[in-house]
Design a protein that fits this description.
The complex is a heterodimer of chains A (200) and B (260). By secondary structure, chain A is of the alpha+beta class. Chain A has 8 helices and 5 strands, in the order ααααααβββββαα. In chain B, helix 1 packs antiparallel against helix 8, helix 7 crosses helix 8 and helix 11 crosses helix 12. Classes of the chains: A alpha+beta (200), B mainly alpha (260). Chain A: Pfam families: MlaC (PF05494).
Chain lengths: 200, 260
């Protein structure tokens, strides 16, 4: 009986400590946590590659990974650039949703080029206020190439916010592309959002 | 016939001088304006050439690549690409030496010897399994090591994205290639064929990425330019902004959320 209530108290204490912890984003991101995050990302990506599923299944799996492990709102806002500043909250949310689907279709499709390959985490190091996690992509019959993730906890969670494939930077590349799409629509953000839902 | 051979070696000897001279002339005036990733003073001409290259891809290169990729089995295509790669190694050894990079020169020298013999004239790549990986280099990189600046962005007919420095490098590489200089002319013709096959194999393999950049981008010229410059600077060990410092490679979207 005593034991039982102790346990219950323990559980209660544990639960409140947990909610406190999630309310406070103050836990500093460590090298080990950054590596752990990217190990999970890489593990999931490798299983998608190995699954040999249909293209549409791969795209939706990639979307899950993207939403779960990356800071989508920050990526979307940065990609939209100055236009994000004047956008309403509703527009920004709609853009972020459309952007998520667009990125997942665009990059999910390319998983076919990774058939028979895998990613391996190499090393993690602190840069500025975040961590850089270097991985190598091994593809059959070609030299391994560099895929680097940048991880931060500034969103309140450990998430990656940028990635580089052989030096090609996702944020920079998509910022230019989204900027060009917006220019083509005379700066009409709603038109961009509508078209982004079909693009990629 | 001694005459063509003599002519060829004269051209081979002097072409680099012309190219380097042209480079010094061109490279002197182009550096990126603030906020620009790369100097692009010839943007108007470049855009036209980009459209021309896109048209060539649509009409010839992509259909040929898709046919090649579908008809010829993967191991055969891989073997052909390996042979083509193997024949670029002597030139890469030369560039390693010009860059005073002993490791690069030795790696590629041993690769060439091993793959040419045990690898059956380069068809297979046992060197990689022996710890001698593919370490690409070219005269464009040599010029970078010698301190030449990147210069302006160029869209080169049939070759695609380049810069003044890289294009000069391509011209010089073609002229000083030891394989070209020390083998009969018909070898060069055969090698062109191998290179073309390798190009088609790459076009086939990376079709999703290449086609999406060329045909699905809102501004395929700007995307091609951005991808090329980022990747090239990465290969040369430079940051995205072109300086040799790693710092500005990693801008922080938490500090600058609107990319201003």
């Amino acid at each position: 009986m005593l034991n039982n209530s102790m346990t219950r108290r323990g559980v209660l204490f544990g639960a409140s400590a947990l909610s406190l912890a999630s309310a406070l984003p103050a836990f500093a991101l460590t090298e080990a946590n950054a590596t752990k995050l990217i190990n999970s990302v890489v593990g999931q990506i490798n299983s998608v590659i190995a699954s040999g599923q249909s293209q549409s299944a791969m795209i939706s799996q990639f979307e899950n990974i993207f939403v779960r492990y990356s800071d989508v709102p920050t990526i979307a806002r940065y990609t939209l650039g100055v236009a994000a500043r004047s956008a309403s909250g509703a527009q920004l949310n709609a853009f972020t949703d459309a952007f998520t689907g667009y990125i997942s279709r665009k990059y999910g499709k390319r998983f076919q080029e990774f058939a028979g390959g895998r990613l391996e985490v190499q090393q993690t190091k602190a840069v500025k206020s975040f961590y850089e996690v270097k991985t190598l992509a091994y593809l059959p019959n070609s030299a391994p190439f560099d895929v680097t993730f940048l991880v931060s906890d500034k969103s309140g969670k450990d998430l990656f916010f940028n990635m580089f494939i052989e030096g090609v930077n996702l944020l920079l590349t998509e910022r230019e592309e989204i900027g060009a799409m917006l220019d083509r629509r005379g700066g009409d953000l709603n038109a961009l959002i509508a078209d982004l839902k079909k693009a990629g | 016939m001694p005459a063509p051979k003599f002519l060829r070696s004269v051209v081979a000897r002097f072409a680099p001088l012309f190219a380097v001279g042209a480079l010094g002339f061109l490279g002197a005036c182009a550096s990126p304006e603030p906020g620009q990733l790369v100097a692009d003073p010839y943007e108007k001409v470049n855009r036209n050439l980009h459209e021309l290259n896109k048209g060539t891809d649509t009409a010839f290169v992509r259909p040929a690549a898709m046919t090649y990729g579908t008809i010829v089995p993967n191991p055969v295509r891989q073997g052909v690409s390996n042979v083509a790669d193997n024949l670029t190694l002597p030139s890469e050894v030369l560039n390693g030496l010009l860059q005073a990079d002993g490791k690069l020169a030795l790696n590629n020298g041993f690769r060439f010897v091993i793959n040419s013999t045990f690898g059956l004239a380069g068809l297979l790549d046992p060197a990689t399994k022996m710890g001698l990986p593919d370490m690409d280099t070219d005269f464009g990189e040599t010029l970078h090591v010698w301190g030449f600046k990147e210069g302006a962005y160029l869209s080169v007919p049939l070759l695609g994205p380049s810069t003044e420095r890289d294009f000069a490098g391509t011209v010089v590489d073609a002229a000083i290639n030891p394989v070209t200089l020390f083998t009969p002319l018909y070898y060069t013709a055969a090698r062109r064929g191998l290179n073309a096959a390798e190009l088609l194999d790459d076009r086939y393999r990376y079709d999703e990425t290449i086609s999406s950049t060329l045909y699905d981008s809102a501004d395929s010229y700007a995307q091609s330019r951005l991808l090329y410059i980022q990747n090239r600077r990465f290969e040369l060990g430079q940051s995205a902004s072109g300086s040799d410092s790693q710092d500005d490679f990693y801008f922080d979207p938490y500090e600058d959320p609107y990319a201003e």
